[in-house]
């Protein structure tokens, strides 16, 4: 005879749910839940970016700056190149909200149209320098050996000549300076830090397993470099390029300030700041407006670079 | 007793850097400098000479010059020979300590000798200001990341980077020099250290901001490292942890930046010296560029490149002092 366990009467039997076998086909278990799949590095960075107030502020500022650069005429009715000497040194009025300069130019129009010059120089120099530096750096890092040694020495040579110094020497020689010339001059001396960062980044990526796997699957080295190494190595380059954009804008202003950049007939913040200097004592605002516009523009791009770096850096995320 | 738990176990000897290794390393680096030096001088030479119009016309100024005199001058400056030969002659003379004669008839080396100490002082002041203030502010900012003081310092650094040096220079000159009268407006010849204080600060301002940001990032990263927690756990004071374990480990990127910055500072002196009317290398160079005085341009830029290369070598040697794990391979 079998005696019932005492506990049975005290505690109700636990009810375990056992799923019927036919309700869980293997396909359902194996199916990948795409809604919670790991996001790519860029998607993750994008999610972090839109939550970052620094990014939102800088992006908003950049949108405004780009709008002003594209349509300065929508915001002022004045011609930046029309100086009415009978209306020189005027205080702010409804006609001239920021006043006029010593030559009777409208300050607001000069500041607004100057945005276009600065943004164009900054943006296209950034593209040119990133192309030169990115290609040379990627090739040096990926090919390695003697090729790397030669390219690295070439980079060192250009790195040893400060950006402003090299730019002044060339710019002074060029007879007719214009915006494309400034871009070329700054690009020729401004690519070295991009090349160094690209090289280091490519070297750290090229020995990773997924590149080896791609080689094992039969990819040639060009495919490897273009499809696998560069996309995974480009993040620090983008950060540097964004910050560089601000540096190039300051460099263009410095060239114009020194009198070797854009000619006096073109509208440039650097030239305007230089022109405002003699009147610093009596009309400090003439210096203030273009300086402020320059500072805000540069600041926006530096902040954007900071935000992108933080978003791409997993260490900075866990705060 | 030497305080160790098991004095009978020999303490593993830390490998000391061998003097011969360091000498080999310096020798190798000096060899690497040669192509960089040659390349940089060649580029500057090409930029200064080839693209120029007629240097003889620059010497002559506004007055016309007779063809005979022009030919003689061309021969004197070797302008009648191909550019590469000119460059080789220039290099040959340079290695014999001969920098050539400036357009004003004075030997270039004399003019550089007169101007160099001024700019050197200016750069030293800039480097001291940017490193001391930059590192101190960066440490405070990095240790108190996310607090009000950190945000304030970060905003200040961003503002200093965004406002161009010449605007900072104007404002400093106007406020400190013209309005308050605490600093000279024009520095002029043979300035004292004191007179160069404000221009030096202006020159170092942008780098100060970069040093601050670099130190901040680096400190914040090291502050959470395992060895720092260990140091705190074994009872070291906060000051000891910061100075011995956090700061030393986080200074390498900062020192790299400051070393590379020395050359850029000398170049950046063009703007600062122009604003404060300092007769240093920067104003010498700028005048030479505007006048098309190619031999002077090449000589000054060559000097700046040498300073840049030597400063970088010193930085690389400092690495081993900061981080004993770094060894110089033969």
Automatic annotation (TrEMBL), chain A:
Q: Which residues form the ABC transmembrane type-1 domain?
A: 115-305
The membrane topology term of the UniProt record is: Multi-pass membrane protein
The protein's predominant localisation is membrane
What is the name attached to this protein's record? ABC transporter permease
So what family is this one in?
Belongs to the binding-protein-dependent transport system permease family.
**What SUPFAM superfamilies does this protein's entry cite?**
MetI-like
Question: In which compartments does the protein localize?
Answer: Cell membrane
The source organism is Brachybacterium tyrofermentans
Database matches in InterPro entries: BP-dependent_transpt_permease (IPR050366), MetI-like (IPR000515), MetI-like_sf (IPR035906), OppC_N (IPR025966)
Q: Name one Pfam family in it.
A: BPD_transp_1
The alphabetical list of record keywords is: Cell membrane, Membrane, Transmembrane, Transmembrane helix, Transport
Which regions span the lipid bilayer?
Answer: 54-75, 119-143, 150-171, 177-198, 287-305
